[in-house]
Amino acid sequence: MQSIFILLLTLGCISIVSTYQCYQCHGESNGDCNDPFNATGGITDYDKEEASPGEICVKAKLKTNGRSTIERDTNSYGLFNCVPGENGCKKYINGDLTATICCCTSDLCNAVSIIQQKPLIVLLTMSISVMFTYRWY
């Protein structure tokens, strides 16, 4: 049982340091970038960008004067910074601009409407729970 735990922990660490891609597109110039996202339509391999170390995938929903658009990118453009390793969404309001910024750290994760956690972390948590349950009973 301990060897399974060590194996899962090692795989989890490998997953954390691996690189991933993010979609890079703007809804104003490419309608397939808006929600609902259409990765099989006008999105091509040129709309995917390798995230540099420390970068996070970002999906920004911007609303101003009754119009809304979606931008998908890495956090490199600096307008809305994400905390490295943090997944989730935050809402910002500045005058007429309302922005919902979602940050994530897995391959092409900024395609989804709601940012999802890495399945490996869920598996690791469940495995640890099973290990402790097995050990105590």
UniProtKB/TrEMBL annotation:
Keywords: Glycoprotein, Signal. InterPro entries: QVR-like, Sleep_regulator. The keyword Transport does not apply. It comes from the Eukaryota. Residues 1-19 form the signal peptide. GO terms for biological process: regulation of synaptic transmission, cholinergic; sleep. This is Protein sleepless.
